[in-house]
Amino acid sequence: MAAIYLIRHGQASFGAADYDQLSAKGNAQAHKLGEYWQQLTAPDKYYSGDLLRHSQTAEQFVKGIATSTKGTSVKKTLAVITHSGFNEFNHVDVLTCYKPQWQDLEKMAKSLMKNNDLETNKAFQVEFSHAINRWVSGEHDKDYQETWPQFKARCIQALQDVIGQNSNDKAGNIQHLNRQRKPARDIVIFTSGGTISILVQYILALTDQQTLMINQQMVNTGITKLLFSTNRLSLDYLNNYSHLSIAGDKWITYR
Fold first, then answer.
1. What is the reported pTM?
2. Mean pLDDT of the chain
3. Whether CATH 3.40.50.300 fits 2-89+147-251
4. What distances in angstroms separate CA 25 from CA 60, 86, 253, one per listed residue?
């Protein structure tokens, strides 16, 4: 069977004018993941959402995996295939439909600011959960640029596209885009926590609420491994962040 590794992006810039870029810690997390990957089978194909935090995570990952002689060839041959289907949902849209005054993310961050970072993160999580539940409920679909069902369908289609491009079954029902003569066997996809949670829901037939619970636990640069063949798709493991645990608890982040 072939493997797909879904990699959540590194820590982004929460509270900054532009969330969609890695923080200094986020860059280091992705680099540590690349170094850790030297112990694993080298990827032979890369995909990425088209958000900046996805491409920056990919860049740092490749730098990390290329720090040894073994990884040098990976750096030279890297070609990341961009697929917007792996993008995260628009969290700004979800938040501002819940509270229109939060159009300015810097003002939102200041309004939630507490005595320390832990209290601030807890305050944000409470409000964000309310905003997500409003979106998922389906009672306000007309308010959103992309509804919850549309988001789920987009993520699933992106996964099916990758499987189709790397399947040996030419007679299958999945459309095969740009089929290779030799399908990739170890595929890395740089994406986001929401997208990964939806794909896990799809494979395990979870409820929406179970899916949201998984999303809350997704760690920056955590690895989720899928296995697939012509007629099988399964989850091997979820949200592995051993590379961060080894480095110390301070490296484990969720935003």
1. 0.87
2. 87
3. no
4. 11, 23, 9
